[in-house]
Design goal:
Structural class: alpha/beta
Number of helices: 11
Radius of gyration: 27 Å
Length: about 270
């Protein structure tokens, strides 16, 4: 890129354009080579800027989503679970439930792909332009319970009430107290019929009270969440248990080299 082009790139950045220097250099080379008219130049520059802004926006929303690493759905082993309604999952990927502010319950034992499916729904929502937040329920509750004042709590809870799609992973794996139930109810009630929530769990609704013993709001919590909810139940043995390497299947240790173990080479001069 020439000095003039560098100056132009800097001026465009100051004006708010997000097109990168390399992309702008390639665009200018294309303009000079193609001898485009003024209108065509502006149209293509606008297209370039829209793509750059979309990329920046997607990167920002992806960082906020905290989805982590996961297996894409096209590599999901649909034959492993004894029971799973693949058609429902594939319909959910179309994200109509997000448009309608509906919820999703992914219920099943450990190692059956609940979290993987939830993460894939999250990445599909990101690609479609939605805001997403993924976290374990334990992490959300710890985060909110650490807030030391009501204003601090109200500011932090927006992290979980504002995203178009909230994914709460692992309800039922750790016991919680009644205050935790109140916080979860607060989140679900604020999102009710407005924004979508996905919960992964190993428990049926009637067992949620065992997670929050003594909490008065559990019935209302289940009622709000389940009112507009798609249920996906997954049955079977853990995929991780199935693919765990058994001790009897491990390759035998290599035999020792003839003459016993090799002595380590000394670095520097040996002691006298």
């Amino acid at each position: 890129m020439s000095d003039d082009d560098n100056d132009l790139a800097a001026r465009l950045r100051r004006l708010g354009l997000r097109v990168g220097r390399d992309a702008l250099a390639a665009f200018l080379a294309h303009v000079h080579k193609s001898r485009l008219g003024p209108t065509e130049v502006l149209e293509q520059l606008a297209d370039l800027e829209e793509r750059a802004r979309a990329a920046v926006n997607l990167a920002r929303r992806t960082r906020f989503a905290c989805l982590g690493a996961f297996k894409p759905l096209d590599r999901f082993d649909w034959n492993h679970p004894e029971k799973i309604d693949r058609a429902i999952v594939e319909r959910l990927v179309a994200l109509d439930f997000v448009d309608r502010g509906e919820n999703v319950l992914l219920k099943g034992g450990s190692g059956l792909g609940k979290t993987t499916i939830a993460q894939n729904l999250g990445v599909a929502a990101l690609a479609a332009g939605y805001t997403v937040r993924f976290a374990t329920l334990a992490a959300v509750l710890a985060d909110l319970m650490a807030q030391e004042s009501v204003p601090a709590f109200d500011r932090r809870v927006r992290r979980y009430t504002r995203p178009d799609l909230l994914i709460l992973d692992e309800l039922g794996y750790l016991p919680c107290d009644s205050r935790s139930a109140d916080i979860l109810y607060n989140i679900i009630s604020r999102r009710h019929e407005q924004r979508s929530t996905i919960i992964t769990t190993n428990l049926a609704y009637k067992q949620w009270g065992t997670v929050f013993p003594g909490a008065a709001c559990v019935v209302a919590l289940v009622d709000r969440f389940a009112q507009h909810c798609h249920r996906v139940e997954i049955l079977g043995a853990s995929w991780r248990d199935k693919h765990r390497l058994d001790p009897d299947d491990r390759p035998p240790p290599r035999p020792a080299a003839p003459g016993g173990p090799r002595r380590k080479r000394m670095i520097g001069n040996p002691s006298p």
